[in-house]
């Protein structure tokens, strides 16, 4: 199944952006976490420390390949990097995406202070701004590397940019 990958760290605003895009385009959205849960794996949505990282990668890909969306485009919300149970930043191997058909990448960024406040408010999780900055830098670096290696178009989006620029990227 072809999809547009919406990358960014937890709390950056991916779900909010996906909602705006669904209001403007014929596009469906789902997160990698939702696909993992759909496979039967339990995930705590408020805990951003991930266990069984490698096993989860196979689960979401199987569920992705079973989706039937008709003619709608798919926006897949996910990550190139994760925090492990010790809050260490882990870069996912690019092989995590083998067997999938990623057509474009949107990397969403924001100020680490904004992300910290969102995570505190939404999940009652307080992460140091320094960790969030490093996490976001890792995510952006990996998105850029994957884009270059696989020759996939990449759009780096900040919510202060006009949405029309992103809509143009998606539809062209």
Task: Provide an overview of this structure.
With 172 residues, the protein is of the alpha/beta class. The chain has six helices and eight strands. It has helices at 14-24, 32-38, 53-66, 112-123, 129-150, 163-171; strands at residues 2-7, 27-31, 49-50, 73-78, 81-84, 89-91, 101-109, 153-158. The strands form two sheets. A five-stranded parallel β-sheet has the order 2-4-1-7-8, sandwiched between helices. Helix 4 crosses helix 5 (129-150). It starts with a strand and ends with a helix.
- List segments where confidence is low: pLDDT < 50 over at least 5 consecutive residues: none
Helix/strand order: EHEHEHEEEEHHEH
What does the radius of gyration come to? 15 Å
How would a crystallographer describe the biggest sheet? 5 strands, parallel
Round the mean pLDDT to the nearest integer and report it. 89
Query: What is the overall number of helices?
Result: 6
Strand element count:
8
Straight-line N-to-C gap: 19 Å
Give the overall silhouette. globular
Helix content: 40-55%
**Class by alpha and beta content:** alpha/beta
β content, as a range? Answer: 15-25%
Strand line-up across the major sheet = 2-4-1-7-8
Short note summarizing the structure:
Helices cover 44% and strands 24% of the residues.
Task: Set out the fold topology.
Blueprint: E1 2-7, H1 14-24, E2 27-31, H2 32-38, E3 49-50, H3 53-66, E4 73-78, E5 81-84, E6 89-91, E7 101-109, H4 112-123, H5 129-150, E8 153-158, H6 163-171
Parallel strand pairs: 1-4, 1-7, 2-4, 3-5, 7-8
Antiparallel strand pairs: 5-6
Helix pairs in contact: 2-3, 4-5
